[in-house]
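Take a look at the protein record below with the fold in mind.
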Amino acid sequence: MMVTTHALVGLLVALPLAVLAPDHATTVLAAGVVGGITPDLDVLATHRKTFHLPIYGTIAAGIALVLALAVPTAATFAVLAFLLAAALHNAGDIVSCGLGARPWHNRSERSVYDHYRGRWIPPRRWIRYDGAPEDLALAVGIAVPSLALLEWHWQLLATLLLGVSVVYTGARKRLEDIARWAVRFLPAWARQYVPERYVTR
């Protein structure tokens, strides 16, 4: 799934919590968006393994739910929104494609690493690849409640996320070619940090 879809899921998850705690809506909604995005920061380490925690993340979200019900404060609601969004990020990647730059060709059987069992969970491929038309359709559907119910600045964020989603979907199958072209304009010192497949010879 696209990172924008994950962010919109985080916004959706946080929405009912923000309704329950309207005085802290901004904190709770921001926590949901950040939680939806955070697992993908492991793209800088081992993607879908370092920060993707399908079992432990779900357990943590369950504990946060109990805590928020027992002690309903801005902090517990924000933690709950963050952890629920992160847990749903894992689920979204499992029902999506496997790892690889071209998942429509690559039949990788690695979706998310299960640290509890010490193995990779195979992808379900309900969404064929990040940026697939069905990924965009899901993002649009998930965004509707936020666009209908939230204040203008959150509506603007949801609209921007959808805009990025549309552009990404349109360009998805050309991204490697675009990246190889763009890398030529990077200074030499920066190219050493670019994955080998993007460096043109």
Summary: The chain has a mean pLDDT of 90. The CA atoms of residues 1 and 135 lie 6 Å apart. The chain has one domain: 3-174.
